[in-house]
Amino acid sequence: MGFESEYQKKLTTAEEAVKVVKSGDWIDYGWCAAHPVVLDKALAARAAELEDLKLRGGICLWRPAIFDIEDAPKHIAWNSWHMSGIERKAIAEGIAFYAPIRYSELPRYYRENIKPNDVAMFQVAPMDEHGYFNFGPSASHMAAVCEKSKVIIVEVNKNMPRCLGGMEESIHISKVNMIVEGENPSIAELGGAAATEVDEAVAKLIVEEIPDGACLQLGIGGMPNAVGSLIAKSDLKNLGVHTEMYVDAFVDIAKAGKINGTKKNIDKGRQTYAFAAGTKKLYDYLNNNPECMSCPVSYTNDVRSISALDNFMSINNAVDIDIFGQVNAESAGTKHISGAGGQLDFVLGAYLSKGGKSFICCSSTFKTKTGELKSRIVPTLSNGSIVTDTRANIHYLVTEYGKVCLKGLSTWEKAEAIISVAHPDFRDQLIADAEKMNIWKRSNK
After folding, report:
1. Whole-prediction pTM value?
2. Which helix (H) or strand (E) is 180 found in, with range?
3. Tens digits of per-residue pLDDT, 207-252?
4. Phi first, then psi: what are they for 315, rounded to 5°?
5. Considering Cα of 247, then 251, then 253, then 254, what sign does the dihedral take?
6. Active site residues
7. pLDDT for 160-204, tens place per residue?
8. CB of 68 closer than 8 Å to CB of 44
9. Which residues fall within 8 angstroms of residue 12, CB to CB, at 6 or more apart?
10. 110: helix, coil or strand?
11. Any residues with CB less than 8 A from the CB of 243 and at least 6 apart, and which?
């Protein structure tokens, strides 16, 4: 039987496909830009007759229809591997919950640790001549999802970019149970915030640490994007990319002629990534681009992969950091914000790289809704705040007031270094707090 005849045999409507779902099921929606659309709507339409549906997904770029059913907490629980603002708001509605991860381990969670999915449904690119449906910009952990799902339903989107890879970037029709042809919406975009003067000041301090031939990992947000913009305008050359998330900044750097991957120790000449989210510019760049390599996160975020690359530069954000050096990138006290993602993977891996450096960057302050200025550098993390990187992990801390290397310092040295890049208005109080905690020498100031 040829692939086309098999395709027609498995082709069905979204309404028919979701009839396989029953109360109590675990349902996987895939990841980020590949969350289902018509299947989600069809499942939401019959949700009233179902109870205790447990869904998995992450980084919602739009609000799923299943969130808006009547009395949603009675019917669903959304379990997110990494939260966007949409999912964060759904926590307060009683329908969303965070699943803590070390992102590099996520495929293994599916294969060995968590309850298998009863149903997986997600968007894919159209089938190719060999019978494969590409996962688009969301390879991440999708092969493991498919391996551990009893029923697999793919929703074909003609606009899904075909993201070439090296492994685990697609699924063959023989492993698919049902095919639904979707509404072909444009791929959801994730726009980055415009860089502020603070972002640009931080970026400048980081970029001067990056050598020619370095391999880059950028997180999401204004500061990493500002770093990317500055790199694109710099004299740097022969750069490589090995990252968890592929963002618009990489496209800008590549089109500026700065990226060729010739100095990479592994995957030479390829820009390696686990998933991507950004603007149409990004999706168009990734589509059928042999320079870009879509891979499972168990490869991109493995410290062995990262450390194999010389001069690895990892750049990530933080919510706040205390004067012991503990980094919180996930919550504001007990209020959840996003997730651990792969920050620790890259902090550890970059330090193991020959010539590698990792940078945790943040503005020194932020303003509350009432306009009060608060320091992001605090005596101790707030009750309930999550330690994303322990005090022994952080390499460089960067704010608009400077950058400091925190490796190998005793508690008083570390406190002194961290306070030195705090906003001047908060330094005296931080010193007083350090003295109370016996991590300040009288001779310091």
Report:
1. 0.96
2. strand 178-181
3. 999 999 999 999 877 788 889 889 999 999 999 999 999 999 999 9
4. -130, 115
5. positive
6. 244
7. 999 999 799 999 999 999 999 999 999 999 987 778 899 999 999
8. yes
9. 178, 179, 180
10. helix
11. 216, 217, 218, 250, 272, 273, 274, 300
